[in-house]
Amino acid sequence: MEKVRFGKTGLMVSRVALGGIPIMRVSKAEAVKLVQEAIGLGINFIDTAHVYADSEEKIGEGIKGIRREDLIIASKSPADDKKQFNENLDLSLKRLGVDYIDIYQLHNVGSETRRDAVLAPGGAYEGLQEAVKAGKVRFPAFSSHSLPVALELMKSDKFAVVQFPFNYIDRQAEKEAIPLAQKLDMGFIAMKPMGGGLLNNAGISFRYLLQYDSIVPDPGIESIEEIREIVGIVEKKQPLTAEDKKEIEKLCAEFGPSWCHRCDYCQPCPQGIAISAVLCTKSSSKRFSPERARAMIGPAVEKAKTCLECGDCMTRCPYHLEIPRLLKENIAHWDSLA
Ligand code: SF4
Ligand code: SF4
Q: What's the CA-to-centroid distance between 135 and ligand 2, angstroms?
């Protein structure tokens, strides 16, 4: 597997990473086999998060016996303040069974409120800086779904790596964020390369993303067959075909008008409905285990049933999504899974 320089970190990472969300759904034994298969196929970059249930622990089992310097490990903390951040990081290190994490991200800095909290004195960013000084983390990073917040944090010179959604339907990052990452020499992790499980043609997804030399796609993978398929596609280095382009156009027309970018510009909702969480019900129910999905989005879906159809949110959505209708569709999908 080809390795590429990951921006100013200077790390040489595999052309594709192993994303740790779906590992939550498989047994520990299967997770260990999956991680070992990925490493055997040349993937040296593994990304997980504190909040992905037992994902860190399972990955920790899978990397036992592998030379630490042969792996690039990334994880994330959802903490706002330093105390919580330190607790999260120490637990991430323990679960992964490592002395340091290469890339530690402030998880989903997706709003101005969260941005202000993490950057405040005594905030999570202070903890991240101290962790870098203490050698527990090599490179500070963040993930986000909000383009303006992500662009601002990228320009702040505080982070070496950014993680942002990017796939052939969700192309928000294409015009500004990817060129900016290149200009600033930051590593760019492409989150949801297969649309969080909604885009099921791996060939098209990766041929599209691999046009961009400077990004590393981070697919969540739960089976050995998937990892072999993706590595095969990546290693083939085939450009997009005319047929792929046609299919992309078709899928953009099908999914685009209802694709929620999780930017949360539609808030606040007078009913307190977590609109983006509900609009992502289909992908969340594919990515997470049924128990985890129930805990994460079950209450939000129930709350969505109180929508007044006032349309306030629609006036704020930059993508002109028909939110009340989409809420209903997602509620129906969720109820059909019960
Ligand atoms: S239409 Fe529904 S979701 Fe949108 S603001 Fe009104 S109550 Fe909230
Ligand atoms: S509904 Fe629109 S504004 Fe709200 S999170 Fe989704 S894309 Fe953003």
A: 38
